[in-house]
Design goal:
mainly alpha; globular
């Protein structure tokens, strides 16, 4: 039986595969923060910027939505892709 964590991870993976541009934007915003000298930043803060931009960008109310539960998975993916920035996002232990 899948745990809630497994379900959320799988849902996030399906979303990532359907919308790779979200990953690109997450990385772009993370590197803006890094290049401006931030030693740490919130993945949810970046996610909020992305949500605002996607909701307000073209006025398409039927556009995809960004699930808040995905941001920790994107932060962990960032660490796998860019291990030299481990610790940039503060992560909690996943208890699900």
């Amino acid at each position: 039986m899948d745990t809630r964590f497994d379900q959320m991870r799988d849902e996030c993976q399906r979303f990532h595969e359907a919308h790779p541009e979200v990953w690109d934007e997450f990385v772009r915003l993370a590197f803006i923060a890094i290049n401006r000298g931030h030693k740490s930043y919130g993945a949810r803060a970046l996610w909020g910027v992305m949500r605002w931009n996607s909701d307000m960008g073209d006025g398409d109310q039927d556009a995809f939505k960004l699930n808040d539960h995905h941001s920790p998975f994107y932060a962990r993916r960032f660490y796998r892709m860019y291990p030299e920035y481990d610790g940039f996002f503060q992560l909690r232990e996943q208890k699900s």
